[in-house]
Each structure stands twice: as C-alpha cells, then as structure tokens.
Please model this.
Amino acid sequence: NAGVTQTPKFRILKIGQSMTLQCTQDMNHNYMYWYRQDPGMGLKLIYYSVGAGITDKGEVPNGYNVSRSTTEDFPLRLELAAPSQTSVYFCASNKPQDTEAFFGQGTRLTVV
Amino acid sequence: QKEVEQNSGPLSVPEGAIASLNCTYSDRVSQSFFWYRQYSGKSPELIMSIYSNGDKEDGRFTAQLNKASQYVSLLIRDSQPSDSATYLCAVNPNQAGTALIFGKGTTLSVSS
Model:
C-alpha cells in the first residue's frame, strides 16, 4: 500500500518558470490537502479538496492552482515561480474528515 | 479566522523527564484533535488522536483534552533523545468541507 505519493522530491526552478507538483493517494480518501512549510515554521494550508471536482482555498493560495479530477490525484500548479515560494510542500489526505491525515514525503522546492 | 496556538519552544528536558506540550484552539465547536511528530527533514506522523474530554494514554504518551478551556496537551513520560522533534497540534473544525488546521509546532530537545 503506497499511501500518499508526491513527485518530485526535489526541484530547483528559475524565477518565472512554472511547474506541477504531483500528489496521488491509493486509500480512496475524500479529503486531500496541500501545505507548505517554511524553515522553522508550521504547516500553512494552500488548497484543499473534499472530493473530486471540489476545491477550496486555504490560508496562502496566491500563486498556486489546483484541480481534482479524480479521487486519487490532487496536483498543485505553480505559475510564474517566485523566490517566496521556496519551501517544502506536503500533500496529505484523510477519510473521513475527523480521522488521521496521512502525509506524503514532501517536495523541497527552491526558486532562484 | 480559526487558530491553533502552540509555544514554539524550544522545550528542553533531560532524558527520563516528563515533557509537557500545550496547544490552544479558537474554534469552540472543534471535536477532533491530533498530535503529530515531525523529525527534521521528514513528513509529520500521527502519534495521538483524542476526541473526548479527559486523558488518553498510549505507551509513554498521554493526550489531555479540555474542551471548556479549549486546550489540548501532550505529555511524554520518560523522555528519550529519540523524542527530540517538532510536535504539531492539529484540530478538525468539525464543519463539513473544512480542512485540518495545524499549529506552528513546538520543538522538543531531550538531552542525554
């Protein structure tokens, strides 16, 4: 059972480039989340989804977009990367809402 | 804005001592509470969940919940150097279509 899988694990982007962070889960979870974690800080919610076709903004959505076309996948799109988006990105999922959230291994992104 | 507050620390305790980690939350209707442990460079992992007022024990860990005071805590007995990590408190606002909210985390250092 793979759980929550994120790709890539590491990425360096140049300012202005775009990329998609992939997240997939094989646990048939309804809820999926994207968080970012800056050095020495907690988790900040970027976007979340309560099911296929439904997404909502979190605390820090600016500069990001998401889609949820299937239960399994929840990609995060960065358009026009900026140095402020240098962070570690975590994808997580749970089902139902009040149960344990499982995290992916994280994607360490550096924008230069 | 729903908030989860934690003392960022660092909290330093000697090996064998009791470590006490605290968390307060702003949303009175919250029903589900979680403690995650995060080692440096790793993703968060669940160590305790608690849903009812009172104490819940699991090995060396005890979670305590007081909904009237909007307070949840984690006690770690017989602290070990391997317990050195950042501990994240997470709250489920218990409203349909909402996401888990995380505190900034408390860094615990256990010295041998």
